[in-house]
Amino acid sequence: MKVVSSSDWRDDLAFESPTLVADVSPGEATRCSVCGGDSEPLERTELWAVKHKHPKQHGGYVRFYCQTHLPAIKVAPVAAPTRAAAARAERRIIAPRRPTSVEDRPRAVCPDCWVEVPSTGICGICGNTIA
Ligand SMILES: [Zn+2]
Ligand SMILES: [Zn+2]
Question: How far is ligand 2, taken at its centre, from the CA of residue 105, in Å?
Fold first, then answer.
C-alpha cells in the first residue's frame, strides 16, 4: 500500500468542494467532525472531506462530514460560482484601488523608531532629522 504523507492529499483538495474521503485518504473507519467523538466511526465511503478557508492558515483546513452533516454545498461544485467567490468579486468592485502615485515614492524610515518619516524629514516619535 502506498503511504502518502498526510498533508499531500489535503493540498490537492479544492476549497469548499466535498470529496469522498475514501477517494483521497483511504483507511480505517473514522468520524464525522460534527457527530463528534462519541459517534460510531463511519466507513470512508460514507464520509466527505471538505477543505475550508482559514483566516490565518493559507492552506486552509480539512474536516470530515457524514452525509447528514455535509454543509450545504452543492456536491457538483463546478456548476455555479460559490457564494464565497461571489462575495470576493463583489468586494473587488466595491473597494477602489488606492491611487499609488504618492505611495510609490520610498519614504525615509527613522533608524531608531522604525517608522516612516513625514516629508518634513523629522521623525514624529523621537524628533530626529532624517536625511
Ligand atoms: Zn455527522
Ligand atoms: Zn525616530
Answer: 20
